[in-house]
Design a protein that fits this description.
The complex is a heterodimer.
Chain A (H helix, E strand, L loop, with lengths): L3 H13 L10 H14 L44 E6 L2 E2 L12 E5 L26 H9 L4 E5 L4 E12 L11 E6 L4 E10 L7 E10 L4 E9 L5 E10 L4 E8 L4 E10 L5 E10 L4 E10 L5 E10 L4 E10 L6 E11 L5 E10 L4 E10 L3 H9 L4 H17 L5 H14 L11
Parallel strand pairs in A: 1-5, 4-6, 5-7, 6-8, 7-9, 8-10, 9-11, 10-12, 11-13, 12-14, 13-15, 14-16, 15-17, 16-18, 17-19
Antiparallel strand pairs in A: 1-2, 3-4
Helix pairs in contact in A: 1-2, 2-3, 4-5
Chain B lengths: L1 E10 L2 E11 L4 E5 L6 H9 L4 E10 L2 E2 L5 H6 L2 E4 L6 E5 H15 L7 H14 L10 E2 L5 H15 L3 E5 L7 H14 L5 E5 L13 E6 L2 E6 L1 H10 L2 H7 L1
Parallel strand pairs in B: 3-10, 3-11, 6-9, 9-10
Antiparallel strand pairs in B: 1-2, 1-4, 4-5, 7-8, 11-12
Helix pairs in contact in B: 5-6
Classes of the chains: A alpha/beta, B alpha/beta.
Amino acid sequence: MASSLATRIAEEHAAALTSLPEQVVARERRRSAIETLKAEGLPTARDENWKYANLRPLEKVRFTPGGRAPTLTVADLPDPIEGYARYTFVDGVFAPALSSPVIKSGISVASLRSSAIELGDHTVGSNRAPATTARDARFALLNDAFAVDGVDIRVAAGADCPTCIELVFVASVEAPAGSSYPRVELHVEKDARLGLIERYVSIGGTGANFINAAVKVDLARGATVTHYRIQECGAKAIWFDTLSAVVAQDATYKLHGVSVGGLSSRSTINVQLAGERADARVSVASVGDRQQIQDAFVLIEHAAPNTRSEQTFRGIAAGRARVAFNGKVVVRKGAQGTDSQQSLRGLLAGPEAEVDVRPQLEIYTDDVRCAHGATAGKLDDNMLFYLLSRGIDRATAQRLLKWAFLEDVVARIEVPELRRYIERSLAGQMQEADVLKELL
Amino acid sequence: MLNIEGLHVSVEGKQILNGLDLEVRPGEVHAIMGPNGSGKSTLAYALAGRPGYEITAGKVTFEGRDLLALAPEERAHEGLFLGFQYPVEIPGVNNVYLLKAAINAARKHRGQPEVDAFEFLTLVREKMKLMHMEESFLSRGVNEGFSGGEKKRNEILQMLMLEPRLAILDETDSGLDIDALKVVANGVNTLRSPERSVVLVTHYQRLLDYIVPDFVHVLVRGRIARSGDKTLALELERRGYDWIIEEAA
């Protein structure tokens, strides 16, 4: 049954359809996405995997892709990370003037709108996405329906580019006027190695954007991808995100997510370990303050033997924020020899804040090794007293401990410059940049 | 320097200290001994201001100030240091940062500017050498993955850096082999001076071979049952605690 929201989305879509570029998503595919949304509706708080997300702001969103692009200059953008070729998209549309492409051997980067690359049927929500998550990928369907551009990255077999591409998605149009649909399609061929940074920021206006990103990652046999994703949207932004990755035999996918921005942020991540010895390491740091909602859902599906996965989450909720992480591991029949580890920890840094950490495990085979730890709590009193007893004042001691709490995730960031940037970003979000300056 | 009168402390509703009196003058080293559960660590924590250690009666003055009215960090600023029996591991906060933050907190309290980075490093290297600690300790998380002995040495290192007026060392000797014990004792001895005092909480006499106390007190059921000089510790070593417990009953 179509909800009023889905009906409104369908109406907006019908009005916009002829202006939506066919080469980004085929018209038929857009229509079918809308039909599915009409039939199933968008997720609601009653959906098990969506109970922590904030879906109410959607009522005020105009879903049609967004209005007039502002005039931005390179100086408006965050500092680039050295060695990475930058591709900037404003409200989902490639902005050549704000980009600094670098030719890298074996790497092809193309705007979906302008490239002639045959896209095939690879997009998120297609049959290749694991059926179990189809319902959780409904925001990707919304992206299918409305996306006006995106990036297609292809890494040739054997290419080696550990310091490679930085994607900057700038949101500027405000939600009542229009939306932003970042779209990434990444194909990494056999034995190739890629380092990718994906950033989300709000520039111009009040930052009350609606961003709905869809990212599709495909790793062929033996490929290695280190993927950093940093969400630093404006304080009033609504950010939805669906990432779906398929990892083939002997391939390794390292995903580092950092979420500090937005009023309401929800990331839905699904990694399928499709080939033997495929390896996924997902680490996520979320920091919420004020009235923010930071919600992440990560599903790792072991679908082949001897696959390995690791999930690490560190989340801090201060003020009246709600920070949630739902980490699910599914071990399919036949995925014997699976090794799965989860370390999920939430920290409550205010009496009105809320932290929800939820590990889930479904195992359909024998011979698996799954180690799972999940905790949610306040700062450790013993640690706090230890620091106080050394003369460190209470506020500094608390900040230091919050900082230390995130270290497990931050330490995994392999690019020093990016790590420093993320540390500053986290400290800024915790409004503690001054106190922590010596650490940064 | 430190004056304790009739101190009563309860923990989780259970009375542990029952009217303890103690006076520590500048330059003195006092050893607090006693059987398990007699209240030795409770005394140390209560003086440092640990939450959950409720003062139900009594008075403690430190350098003429009401110690019990001060927050734990203020007690540290006034020159009190607690060496923990079980130093806490704080992964993600490295030792060098903790040391620097602690020193700067004390300097701020005294109205001094922050410590010069070079001076600080020179000093910390010197003290680490004294404590037989490798430089790699500095960049490690506070006590993270340290052995028992390393943790205790780290406590003494912090003490040497902070130069407290009064150091309360809670079972700093427990879990140390003889070589480590000598290193720790040597560290404590370098701090001894006519202005500084030390309260050593210990279960065994062994430590007192290396840090020779001016006074030895035996704690039984939350009060001092007997005081003496260093020979009392030797007597305890020979005879155990039972005779004092019986006397106190």
